[in-house]
Amino acid sequence: MLSPSLVFLSLLLCLIRLYLIIPTPTVDRQRRRKNTDTCSLAVFLGSGGHTSEILTLVSAVNFSRYTPRKYIVSEGDHLSVQKAAALELLRFNNASKIDVSNNEQYTILTIPRARQVHQSLLSTLPSAVLSLVACLYHVVLVPMFFPKGNKYGFADALLLNGPGTCFVLCIAVYVNKFLGLPAPKIIYVESFARVQSLSLSGRLLRPFVDRFIVQWPQLLQDRSRGEYHNWLV
Amino acid sequence: MRAFLTVGSTKFDALVQTALSRAVLDSLNRKGYTELVIQCGGSDFELASSISQDEVFSVLRNGIDITLWRFKPSLNDEYERADIVISHAGSGTILDVLRLGKPLIVVPNPTLLHNHQEELAEALSTLGHLQSSSVSDLARAIETFDSTALVSFPLFDGSRFSRILDEEMGFK
């Protein structure tokens, strides 16, 4: 039988572990990579304006360096898949024929939606759980059991800009961190549309992501975590 | 000259309805516009029942040639051909239009919940990149709009994000 003190002790240990893995400003940022190294990149496409904005960011990065790429979409979001495929095709066609490292190195992962637009918070619970299970499968389980077929684990970097489902992805990444498994660096870029107030995803993820970036300086007036580098899109 | 009005991927009943009003059409007329193209999406308004999903509907009203349709896969050609764009305040539309260097009047949709469209419209209007208006103020906004006074919108600079990602991932 579990004694209360045992429960308390395990809770305490969990909290200490969580405290240890939350990013801090002074953390030794990263291992250095050589210019010839590659990094795998995962990008969550949150549909509509979220997808357009984050694909604009992806279009800015060096595709031979950030390869292979994974696009994560919510179930039924065909438009985001089309937009990602269009970007990949464009880059593929523009890449020099000698540069074989850029040969459409991308995959699409589909996960159930955590929350429908205008869905009430209570009815969100079952769909959020389903979504979490799918994220845990892709982020924790697959890389754990097929490390060879998936030599980078889930990804080295994960780009997020909202909405809902990206929070669930972040939880899955934290399971990896908690267990000491390889976990991607999470970069969150708040939408260009957010001028005076952060989005719900932004507010939730702010303490937990490795980089929290906003596109309007007003959003950092509370002097809490975050950075502003002018407009990124 | 041609004006193009877009409501984006959803609907904006009041904006389409007011665009067809005498006041707005007269303003366009006085500013020298002869054509008005309206992407009405799923909006409900006086002519909505006459426009089926893939159909183009034309009507001449107050000396303006009006063309209405619901959706197209890409609006970029329409932006290119327009002399002025009137739009809902969605950030995607705003970025697309301003990057093409087209004069833009935005009308935030007040019926949207948690409306942050208005924040963006106001911020960009303060910086002089566009004109922000409202459904009831549209006719006046068109008439007093001076596109030569707009501040040109900066080009997309991909190096900013690329630098952040490289830095985070340990590339020098």
From TrEMBL, chain A:
Its main location: endoplasmic reticulum. GO terms for biological process: dolichol-linked oligosaccharide biosynthetic process. The keyword Lipoprotein does not apply. One of its GO terms (cellular component) is UDP-N-acetylglucosamine transferase complex. One of its GO terms (molecular function) is N-acetylglucosaminyldiphosphodolichol N-acetylglucosaminyltransferase activity. Keywords: Endoplasmic reticulum, Membrane, Transmembrane, Transmembrane helix. It comes from the Eukaryota. It is found in: Endoplasmic reticulum membrane; Nucleus membrane. It is a single-pass membrane protein. The chain crosses the membrane at residues 6-24, 121-146, 152-175. Involved in protein N-glycosylation. Essential for the second step of the dolichol-linked oligosaccharide pathway. Anchors the catalytic subunit ALG13 to the ER. Belongs to the ALG14 family. Heterodimer with ALG13 to form a functional enzyme. This is UDP-N-acetylglucosamine transferase subunit ALG14. The gene is ALG14.
From TrEMBL, chain B:
Residues 4-148 form the Glycosyl transferase family 28 C-terminal domain. It is found in: Endoplasmic reticulum. Signal peptide: none annotated. It comes from the Eukaryota. Its EC number is 2.4.1.141. It is an enzyme of class 2 (transferase). It catalyses: an N-acetyl-alpha-D-glucosaminyl-diphospho-di-trans,poly-cis-dolichol + UDP-N-acetyl-alpha-D-glucosamine = an N,N'-diacetylchitobiosyl-diphospho-di-trans,poly-cis-dolichol + UDP + H(+). GO terms for molecular function: N-acetylglucosaminyldiphosphodolichol N-acetylglucosaminyltransferase activity. GO terms for biological process: dolichol-linked oligosaccharide biosynthetic process. GO terms for cellular component: endoplasmic reticulum. Keywords: Endoplasmic reticulum, Glycosyltransferase, Transferase. InterPro entries: Alg13-like, Glyco_trans_28_C. Involved in protein N-glycosylation. Essential for the second step of the dolichol-linked oligosaccharide pathway. Heterodimer with ALG14 to form a functional enzyme. Belongs to the glycosyltransferase 28 family. This is UDP-N-acetylglucosamine transferase subunit ALG13. It comes from Collybia nuda. The gene is ALG13.
